Amino acid sequence: MVAEMAAGRFDKAIEPFDDTMKRVLPADKLKPAWDGVIEQYGSLQRTTEARTETIQKYKAVFVSCEFQQGPLDVKVVFTSGNKITGLFFTPSGKYKRPSYANPSKFDEEEVSVGKGIMRLPGTLSLPKGAGPFTAVCAAPIIPGY
Fold this sequence. Notes:
Blueprint: H1 2-6, H2 10-13, H3 19-24, H4 27-41, E1 44-55, E2 58-67, E3 70-78, E4 84-90, E5 106-113, E6 120-127
Antiparallel strand pairs: 1-2, 2-3, 3-4, 5-6
């Protein structure tokens, strides 16, 4: 699928989509989503590896990609019937706290929003001391939406 998108063959890329994906992300919507990735990350240089993860009754395949501007994973979620039921563009690798962050000044708690295949994991960082504090929320975005 990644190779089909990179080659601009979006009609071919959506062939394995389930009915819901074909309805919500047809070829004419997949193209601008892919174009948004290219706009942010540059052209696809190569895919490096794929890994799988089982999430309830679904199988997620993470295709690690190297773009001109950096790495990005394409997460493709399959039904038990091997139809694609989800597509996400996610940062590659694990988060590493920047060296300038002082962990003695905040507490962290692992959180998640949603359930099942739509569950979005995250880390809530709460400053120590009396507030009020400014809040920042970061989440993966599908370009073009």
